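Q&A log
Question type: sequence-to-structure
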Amino acid sequence: MTLTSKKHGIFQKMLEEKRKYFPETKLQLPRQKPAYTTKTLTLEDMDAAIEEQAGLSCKNIMSFPNEWAITSIGEVCDVKGGKRLPKGENFSNEITPYPYLRVTDFKSGKIDYSGIQYISESVFKGISNYTISSDDIYISIAGTIGLVGIIQEKLNGSSLTENAAKLTNFTGVFKQYLLFALKSSYAKNIFIENTVSSGQPKLALFRIRDIEFPLPPLAEQKEIATLLDNLLAQVDTLKTRLDAIPNILKRFRQSVLAAAVSGKLTEDDSVEFIKKEKTITTLQEVSSVIGGLTKNARRSDLPIKKPYLRVANVYENEFRLDDVSEIGVEEKELQRILLKANDLLIVEGNGSLEHIGRAALWKGEISDCVHQNHLIKVRVDENNQNAKFLLFYLMSPQGKAEIISKATSGAGLYTLSISKVASIQVPVFSLEEQEEIVRRVEELFAFADQIEQRVKVAQQRVNHLTQAILAKAFRGELTAEWREQNPELISGENSAAALLARIQAEQKLKQGLAKPTRRQT
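Response status: OK
Response body:
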């Protein structure tokens, strides 16, 4: 039987959605030869690119160009810790002008406003020397180590937790360049190596100061930061598009099921199906609805033991059989409670309306298997009813709405009884049309599954791509041609060696002017 125009219409819709959110995505990467232009990196090329670029060890990232120098964080900025709340003080119950930033607020290189705590004016005055601004870089130093970022300007002057530090007063380093360096796997590995764990992991401030990183000329630092801003923004855009696709596919599957059980999927002129006079019936008219076993202490003494399914084993269109228990049964019960291929199992209770009545089709995965009473079994009359069509109906928007209308609520739990399941209304189609509907749904679902698998592979690649790009940047590969085209910006007084000399001279001057203080740890 050939596919109909109606079906092709749904396929076309799927393809349009796929092209919209999952195009042949390309990422712009600088090309080293022959000129400073760009090349494209497709998803299919990512594995090779990541393997080539992801030299993330300390040894590889320190393989930088001869024109670069090496310095430490302590040479280019001050590292200052935050402060805990004074003893006996607590957060304010109201929003005040004094935010207190904690590690839990550090999200994606910024501050997540949703959980910010505030302190009173009197508490703020007691810790007012421990604030942070958007001119600084934050870094988490306790618990979760190495979260780095820059706070939003509107949070300038916020108090900073003792579980974080700030890098401030930068000399000879472009702040955004240093931020990207701290986001690299090289830096994260150094953080881990220098973390002391006596209960809660802790990264001492002096260890942060000692961390070394490559120092290009200042103009090249800015060029690297600009390139990384552009490239990583593309990666974020790609990741956002990929992350959106599972929900698109979920909506697509629901639209397929809605069309299927309403007859629209087989509503065409090329195929003539026998139409039933009756268009609606109930589950009890097309199947047997059967309860399961109630677990009790008496069953542990019964000699016949059988594997049995619980609610934890049944999900929508899926059985999870890693943990299947056994239960004692009586001989006279077996005929009623043994599962057979094409039995539907429906979950009769759940705390969420979304999951009430979730169902799966048994295919005989475990022999001589039974089920508990919280799973209701539906065994169809195979001469008139296709079991998989019934499953698809229960999964469809129409079927779920019918299940919800039958469910009752009590003590925070939605439940279905055998009688309520038996009374669920289902659409009536000839067996031949049901089989054709099932075939078409499965074909469309298989297409969606293929896209979903491609998305998972692409997401894995993209998750590694950021570190691959950072590694390439801090080996000097992103700016190789830029250096060739701008020799005057990396030589003489503009060289990294001259920059490092100025940094070190300024540090000596600071040390000479500063009064001796106890080292902060």
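Response note: The first strand starts at residue 26 and ends at 30.
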